[in-house]
Specification:
Blueprint (H helix, E strand, L loop, with lengths): L10 E2 L6 H4 L7 E3 L2 E3 L5 E3 L4 E4 L3 H14 L9 H22 L3 E4 L1 H22 L8 H7 L4 H10 L4 H9 L4 H4 L7 H4 L4 E6 L3 E5 L2 H9 L3 H16 L5 H10 L1 H11 L10 H7 L16 H25 L11
Parallel strand pairs: 1-4
Antiparallel strand pairs: 2-5, 3-4, 6-7, 7-8
Helix pairs in contact: 2-15, 6-7, 10-11, 11-13, 12-13
Length: 336
């Protein structure tokens, strides 16, 4: 099975693979490779085999994440419908964001942004549930009763899908609304406590959170020596940071063409640099000038389930280690 798209293949090795390498293949082995159609129903391994072993869910989730980083353009190579839906979800996210905030770029103090994003999530959740014909003000228990299902049927179905029965029972017995039981958005501490965070949202590039963009714009608008040095320092950092994608650079070029040109002439030690060469510089810095599927894109249900179960496994393992390493309490008074 292709774990990325949940599609099944009857595949066999070609003559280039050694018997020693093939002997490692067994049921449950995770393999990263290319497939080539030999017949409409049979495929062959057409390239090197990267054998990852029999992975548990946490390591499998990591392997899928690595594949996304290594081969972003092949993520849903055999399922164009999944790729289209993923891109559509990014466009939808941007549309909802603009409708809520009134713009595709905002700058707010970190704590205020955290509050606003939670409000945005609530509205987006309400909207999606409404589009699906679900009343978000009702609890799961009420929705189950209205559908004519028994709680036992729902719990049994959830277990068959691999969900934790305890969590399902908790939801069924809870009177909280569907909206209220969904986990809220929480920014990382470095963003939440930042003086100002700028958020960029784009239908193809996704979103970017930058702590010092507002400061950079102030420095670019100033002409004194200290401001110039400060702007150069931030721009040099931006060239190295993955979070500062090509879209952000193009926004800077559009808003501050002359100051940005002069700053990059200094940073790159290229006195004749012009913004026509910006993409060339970005490619040289390891940035893509074409968008790849961003992190905010939706993922197929089977991958979402895998990631959630992997997180549960890691959490359980961490809890067990903490409990095991905790010193036992001594009984009595002052025992030695």
């Amino acid at each position: 099975m292709n774990w990325l798209t949940e599609k099944y293949y009857w595949a066999k090795p070609d003559r280039l693979h050694s018997s020693e390498e093939l002997s490692r293949l067994s049921l449950g082995e995770i393999v990263v490779t290319r497939l080539w159609p030999e017949t409409p129903d049979q495929w062959i391994f057409s390239g090197p085999l990267m054998l990852l072993g029999k992975l548990g869910k946490p390591k499998l989730a990591v392997a899928i994440g690595n594949f996304k980083n290594w081969f972003p353009n092949q993520l849903y190579g055999d399922a164009p419908e999944l790729l289209e839906e993923a891109w559509t979800s990014v466009e939808r996210y941007r549309q909802y964001f603009v409708e809520f905030f009134g713009t595709n770029r905002i700058t707010l103090p970190g704590q205020e942004l955290n509050k606003q994003l939670k409000a945005y999530q609530d509205e987006m959740t309400q909207r999606r549930l409404g589009e699906a014909g679900i009343d978000a003000s009702k609890s799961l228990k009420e929705l189950v009763n209205e559908a004519g299902l028994s709680e036992e049927d729902v719990a049994e179905s959830a277990e068959l899908l691999g969900e934790e029965s305890g969590a399902v029972n908790h939801l069924l017995n809870s009177n909280q609304s569907i909206k209220m039981v969904m986990p809220p958005i929480n920014l990382p501490d470095d963003l939440r406590w930042a003086e100002a965070v700028t958020v960029f949202v784009h239908p193809r590039w996704g979103q970017a959170f930058l702590q010092d963009y507002a400061r950079l714009t102030q420095l670019l608008e100033s002409t004194d020596e200290a401001a110039t040095a400060g702007a150069d320092q931030i721009l040099q950092k931006y060239l190295k940071e993955d979070a500062v994608n090509t879209y952000v650079w193009h926004c800077m070029a559009e808003d501050y063409p002359q100051p940005l040109t002069e700053a990059l002439q200094r940073c790159l030690d290229r006195p004749s640099f012009t913004l026509d060469e910006l993409d060339e510089v970005l490619v040289g810095a390891g940035k893509s000038v074409e968008p790849t599927l961003p992190e905010i894109a939706s993922v197929p249900m089977h991958l979402q389930t895998l990631f959630e179960e992997a997180l549960q496994d890691v959490t359980r393992s961490s809890s067990k280690k903490k409990a095991k390493g905790k010193p036992k309490q001594k009984s009595g008074f002052g025992g030695r």
